[in-house]
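Task: sequence design from structure.
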């Protein structure tokens, strides 16, 4: 059985450019609508209620800055 010497491929520049540029273009095409959606959801102009969530070591606490505590009932959403 003969073992021929394989051909040496010195450069694969075209395929290297293709598999570098193609995923980059796909990521850019995904990023453009994602950033548009992110910035459109950035800030609410007139929120109905503002809630401040504070993280402690073992629990969460919440402050409702727009809530007037005129009655003894809790806040329902």
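Answer:
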């Amino acid at each position: 059985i003969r073992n021929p010497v394989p051909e040496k491929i010195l450069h694969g520049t075209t395929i290297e450019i293709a598999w570098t540029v193609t995923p980059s273009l796909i990521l850019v095409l995904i990023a453009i609508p994602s950033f548009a959606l992110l910035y459109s959801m950035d800030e609410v102009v007139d929120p109905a209620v503002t809630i401040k969530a504070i993280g402690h070591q073992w629990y969460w606490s919440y402050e409702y800055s727009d809530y007037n505590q005129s009655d003894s009932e809790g806040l329902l959403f």
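The first strand starts at residue 51 and ends at 55.
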